[in-house]
Amino acid sequence: MDTVFPGDEIILKCPDVSLLEPNGELNVPIAFENENVVVFDKPAGMPVHPSIKHQGDTLGNFFAYLYPQLTFRPVNRLDRDTSGLCIAAKNAHAANLLQGSCDKLYYAAVHGITEPAGTINAPIARQQESIILRCVRQDGQQAVTYFKRLMCSNEYSLEEIRLETGRTHQIRVHFSYMGHPLAGDDMYGGLRTHISRQALHCGELSFREPVSGEKITVKSNIPQDILNLFDI
């Protein structure tokens, strides 16, 4: 056992190794990076983690290419067709400190004209006999979504969304439950008439830098396929 005195510097070295196949042919913009974290601006259509159908085309595979000596530790996860900011820790210490501490701002285009602002407080549960689908059900987990309408057209409303809770598919389920499913989200009642994926984007991410404690806010512009729904 070593004695530690005031003013001594303690350096923790956490050995890492990537277990994912690296793929340098992928191209994911980096919105922010330092020695502890990296924030990617993930495109729609790219899964975060490999699966049976996606073995080498994920954000994890691109991370493995950039940092072959590190383990992929995503702090927030986005659905495959949801675009936007996704933060990954570069070490176990940063991952532990960041869990549950990131504030996210989402943008979504939904069918119809919503109220100018509101709160959706409805419990979410796994839909019976389905591994993927979720639904609003009284025996589900508490789920709270805050929204503000930024603009609307004849068919769609553009929402700014904050989550109090982070349930699987929460935004998609809540707006479908309210009768305003996300444009393109055919899993929950949306139509793909004008967009080929759910119109959902993580546009702002705020967190405390794991070592310095500095508050960092990273932003990402709303993608053009969502703006096209409003002729922008």
Which descriptors would you attach to this protein?
single chain, 232 residues, mainly beta, globular
Could you characterize the architecture of this molecule?
- This protein has 232 residues and is mainly beta.
- It is built from four helices and twelve strands; from the N terminus they run ββαββαββββββαββα.
- The strands form two sheets. Strands 1, 2, 3, 4, 5, 6, 9, 10, 11 and 12 form a ten-stranded mixed beta sheet that branches. Strands 7-8 form a two-stranded antiparallel sheet.
- The termini are far apart.
- 35% of the residues are buried.
Helix content: 10-25%
Number of helices: 4
The class by helix and strand makeup works out as: mainly beta
Query: Radius of gyration over alpha carbons?
Result: 19 Å
Task: Map the helices and strands.
Layout: E1 30-33, E2 37-42, H1 59-66, E3 73-74, E4 83-89, H2 92-98, E5 103-111, E6 117-121, E7 124-126, E8 134-136, E9 144-152, E10 156-163, H3 170-177, E11 200-208, E12 215-219, H4 224-227
Parallel strand pairs: 4-11
Antiparallel strand pairs: 1-2, 2-4, 3-4, 5-10, 5-11, 6-9, 7-8, 9-10, 11-12
Quick overview:
The protein is mainly beta.
